[in-house]
Amino acid sequence: MPFWKAGKNDDQVLDELKETQKQNADEFVKKQEHADEAQKSSLIIDNNFTPVEYDPQYILQVNHLKKYFPIKGGMVSKTVGYVKAVDGVTFNLKRGTTMGLVGESGCGKTTTGRTILRLYDSKSGGQVLFNGQEVYDLSHKELRALRTKMQIIFQDPFSSLSPRMPVGEIIGEAVREHNLVPKAEFDDYIDQVMDNCGLQPFHKDRYPHEFSGGQRQRICIARALALNPEFIVCDEPVSALDVSIQAQIINLLNELQDKYKLTYLFISHDLSVVEHISDTVGVMYLGNLVEYGAKEDIFRNPLHPYTKALFSAIPIPDPKVKMNRIVLEGSIPSPANPPKGCKFHTRCANCMACCKEEAPVQREIEPGHFVCCHLYDM
Prior knowledge:
Elements: H1 10-43, E1 58-73, E2 78-94, E3 98-102, H2 109-116, E4 125-130, E5 133-134, H3 140-146, E6 150-153, H4 167-177, H5 186-196, H6 213-225, E7 231-235, H7 243-260, E8 263-267, H8 271-277, E9 280-285, E10 288-294, H9 295-300, H10 305-311, E11 363-366, E12 369-371
Parallel strand pairs: 3-8, 3-9, 6-7, 7-8
Antiparallel strand pairs: 1-2, 1-4, 4-5, 9-10, 10-12, 11-12
């Protein structure tokens, strides 16, 4: 029943109510349109980058690599956002060298390695050049041939080994599948690979549960090495092992690299291990490579505030030395909703106004030493 107002009849009051309801409805539609446009713009993946040309000194060239995972919502499983696991990573890896990739848990290190190897169906943007070939442009047949040249050592040696197969079959399965050696030489070849990795011939008939953690990791290394690869992604290969076994595995990887001229992408949390094995180091934060350079430059003169905080946590084996620990405040933002501008500005003590608005670009501060930070824009 319409409200009575002084000086107005019922028809006038009804007309005013209808007009108000129409205005509210129009405003709601406009707001909804603006929200839809904002959501659509947030779903557009920016894939603008300058393609790089092949340089023979590099076995791997990664340029502006992106890997986003869609977030589904609604009754029809519509894409409503993305988890930006890898967001514009760029680096080059020389033949026969090791690059260490460090950062907090969830920063995108493993996803970077898996994307490089094309263990996902697609990438969201950028380039991955392996010996000058774009990995994601290869046909199924070409990719199958490339698989022998690119291998991975997984973090957990137990879960990555089939419990139903003896070790000899685990190591030799891919060798047989790719016809790398004649059938008559197969057993001798597997014995040689196992011997190179510190395993005995009688281990071939045993199953993974019969080995220790260090021995299982040797089996994983032997499985990768059996295909005679050129490039291996080592995804935290020593994180599940105790210190003495870690040293054995690291020394084994170094020996195999010297013997077979292997190239490693070594993913790890342990900065002391990375310092020992790496030639170059990349530091990741929330999907971005914030600093990259030679090991000596990174450890001697870290430039990015996040790298400084990360390295300040390295324990010093001297009780008389006082550590100047840099404690970061706040929590890591979600990769599904990263902050605008520099992703680190919410935790950075040196945050400036431009850090909250504009994302920094990668700059070469010293020869071969790159950093993404507005502090070095001048």
